[in-house]
Design a protein that fits this description.
By secondary structure, this protein is an alpha+beta fold. The chain contains 25 helices and 27 strands. Strand 21 and strand 22 form a beta hairpin. The chain is elongated and about 110 Å long.
């Protein structure tokens, strides 16, 4: 007997909290059922299910309801609970994914073989097949179908049995009824030497449903790594400096505000704080989205999760574990992913509406024909015909078939999908919010006014840049074409690098490091707003300023104009400086923009747009964009983005061009139309087929053929996406 109280932790306002891993959650209906069921218990303040990792978070008043009562309520609803542990839950979900894949492979292989036998029987029934041969083929089909249904149908059988034991219905109950009745009828028909059996209908129904379920499981698995990726940025210990100057490593949980900690070269900063001593460079992409290392010295703010450069820093703690900016990013990610998991697919909603009606109609059909004087077997045959003709194969294919074709089209346009429902949400987007650095601009910095390759000073600076690890140095190396570094180079953290050439000192680094006057710096910044500056100085010669900028993507202006022409509202939200963002916005013709924006501010702006009824596509690449990418209605990220942002985004685009954004929206709109058409095809098919089947004019064989025809119709409609206009390969340079 597990002591569930041991897994309870304190929450806000005197409540307690518990995280549970719940087995058997397959759709948004399960989420709503669990949340509504638990909300009936006394003292429950909040019950929230995350469909992605099947995690249930419950806050409640301990005096009114016990932890055991919550687990018991889940059991009554038909769900099994475990203490939530990310590692064991990941293994449990991976194991379920492997089971689905094996079941899918078995159903597909068996279905193909049964279809081959069925085609022979169908052809023979209208020619000269002997009864013995037909029975032989039917028994072979039975020998293939029965173990296949028993093995491949296990995910549906378990779910349906749990639901029925709990006195409820889910989508797997009608699936199991249809499959079992088709198999039982086929066995009876085989024993009676009938012409038709329906083993292929049962097996192919399972195959198509398993395809959709496995794809959905696989897509969800890609989003489960949010917490794992963000955790990799978090330090486990901190080197605290005592009052006597001694340094001791302690757990991060023991660090308190106003403590003094030591951050050595190459370490991640463990806390939010202010530099008291030391000079270094920090990768602040978590805060600003900029990949450029920022110099820090006494008085500079630093944040947990950012990476220290070569210098050693003493940092006065402002916020420790649980209250840092990194923790805020993590909380935003979890909250955004939680909100996204409530999205209900169109096909699921439609199936939930009509499936009970169809099965009720089948039962009434059986009763009606039986009362009309037909025997139980003919009445059952007609009722099963109703079930077979309305089996949700076409509905199950309506969305996945389009997704598969559209995904191929997107891949050819340089776009990879992360989320199964991304296409539908991309088609609904009416507002696009861009990050600037690395999204509207190219990922690599470029040197402006590089001069000719014969420029001696530029070439010397390039050779010196080979010894620097600063990101801006890459632009200088590329512009100068330098290949051979200097032998003896010294580097001053946060300032620059230095060597001696011809007995004269050669310096490369910040303008101050090279002795450039502020007036000269202001003059260059006026000419090139928003650039970063390197300076090079050789001997007593005047220093030369080198403006370096991340240029707009080569087709950014054209793509933005295209998106505006299509009627999208465009904005820029960037952590970069005001002048840099202003320059990019003016060049692109985007009127609405904000600069120096932090992750929480981006989420706040997205919430404002959502409250105004806008459906926002977020396009960003920085670590600071990850919460916004996860919280937006739909999101895109370039392949150059940090791994966490790629994981948070619904899709990733390749190459150095911005055109994939426009191509993705066009393809998604076409795909959405195809999905809607497929759903209409499925609905009209049932409107026509059900009355005909209820009237007894359809045999199970005709029902199976009609069901297959409806599946073929929606698949063919999905394939029409390939016949549209040819989009350019956006990955081309």
């Amino acid at each position: 007997m597990r002591d569930w109280d041991a897994f309870v932790t304190p929450a806000e306002d005197g409540a307690v909290h518990m995280d549970l891993a719940v087995e058997g959650i397959t759709c948004a209906a399960c989420m709503g059922e669990i949340e509504r069921g638990l909300s009936r218990l006394p003292g429950i303040r909040k019950a929230r299910v995350n469909l992605t990792n099947q995690r249930l978070a419950v806050d409640w008043v301990r005096e009114e309801t016990g932890a055991d009562d919550i687990v018991a309520a889940l059991s009554r609803l038909g769900y099994k609970a475990h203490p939530f542990d990310p590692a064991s839950q990941r293994e449990r979900l991976d194991r379920h994914g492997r089971e689905l894949l094996r079941a899918l492979a078995v159903a597909g292989f068996a279905g193909m073989n049964i279809m081959l036998l069925s085609v022979s029987v169908w052809a023979g029934n209208v020619t000269d097949i002997t009864p013995e041969t037909r029975d032989f083929f039917h028994w072979i089909s039975a020998l293939i179908a029965l173990p296949t249904v028993a093995y491949s149908g296990r995910p549906f059988f378990r779910s349906a049995i749990s639901a029925l034991k709990a006195g409820r219905m889910n989508m797997d109950v009608p699936i199991v009824i249809g499959v079992l009745l088709a198999v039982i009828l086929s066995v009876v028909q085989t024993m009676q030497h009938q012409h038709e059996v329906y083993f292929e209908s049962a097996v192919m129904l399972l195959f198509f449903l398993l395809v959709g379920r496995y794809l959905d499981h696989n897509m969800r698995g890609k989003t489960r790594s949010f917490a794992e990726n963000i955790a990799a940025l978090k330090a486990e210990v901190a080197a605290r400096i005592g009052a006597d100057g001694s340094v001791r490593e302690i757990p991060l949980s023991k660090v308190q505000p106003n403590d003094l900690v030591l951050v050595t070269a190459g370490e991640r900063v463990p806390v939010d704080g202010v530099v008291e001593e030391g000079v270094s460079e920090i990768d602040q992409s978590l805060v600003t989205g900029e990949s450029i290392l920022m110099p820090v010295r006494k008085g500079a703010d630093v944040y947990a999760g950012t990476l220290n450069g070569d210098g050693t820093l003493k940092v006065r703690v402002r916020a420790a574990s649980g209250a840092t900016l990194l923790d805020e990013v993590n909380r935003l990610l979890e909250a955004a992913a939680q909100a996204k998991s409530t999205y209900v697919r169109i096909a699921d909603r439609a199936a939930r509406l009509y499936a009970p009606l169809v099965h009720g109609a089948a039962a009434l059909t059986f009763i009606g024909w039986w009362l009309a004087g037909f025997g139980w077997q003919p009445s059952l045959v007609i009722a099963i015909s109703v079930l077979i003709i309305t089996c949700p194969c076409a509905l199950g294919l309506a969305v996945p078939a389009v997704q598969v074709v559209a995904s191929g089209q997107l891949f050819r346009s340089g776009v990879l999908l992360n989320a199964g429902d991304a296409i539908e949400r991309l088609a609904d987007a009416d507002t696009i919010v861009f990050d600037k650095t690395g999204t509207l601009t190219s990922a690599e910095p470029r040197l402006l006014e590089a001069g000719s390759m014969e420029d001696d000073l530029l070439h010397l600076a390039g050779r010196l840049a080979l010894s620097s690890r600063h990101p801006l140095s890459l632009a200088l190396v590329q512009a100068s074409g330098a290949l051979v570094p200097f032998d003896h180079v010294t580097e001053t953290a946060g300032a620059g690098v230095e060597t001696s050439v011809g007995g004269e000192p050669l310096r490369l680094g910040s303008p101050a490091f090279c002795g450039v006057e502020d007036a000269e710096v202001h003059k260059v910044l006026t000419q090139h707003p928003g650039v970063s500056l390197l300076a090079v100085r050789w001997g007593s010669e005047p220093a030369r300023l080198l403006p370096i900028s991340q240029k707009l993507r080569p087709d950014a202006v054209e793509t933005v104009a295209d998106l505006k022409a299509q009627g999208y509202l465009l904005e820029i939200l960037s952590g970069d400086r005001q002048d840099a963002v202003r320059e990019a916005a003016e060049e692109l013709g985007i009127e609405h923009w904000q600069a120096e924006v932090r992750p929480g501010d981006k989420i706040a702006r997205l919430d404002e747009l959502k409250a105004a009824g806008r459906k926002v596509l977020m396009v960003g690449d920085g670590l600071n964009d990850a919460p916004a990418l996860a919280g937006a209605y739909v999101s895109l990220s370039p392949v150059t983005a940090v791994h966490l942002s790629q994981t948070a985004a619904d899709a990733v685009f390749l190459g150095d061009r911005l055109a994939p954004v426009a191509n993705t929206l066009r393809i998604s709109k076409k795909a959405r139309r195809a999905i809607e058409q497929n759903l209409w095809i499925s609905a009209l098919y049932n409107v026509i087929a059900v009355p005909v089947a209820v009237a007894g004019f359809v045999t199970p064989l005709m029902a199976a053929v009609a069901m297959s025809a409806s599946s073929i119709a929606v698949t063919a409609n999905a394939l029409r996406l390939r016949w549209g206009e040819k989009l350019p390969d956006s990955r081309a340079e």
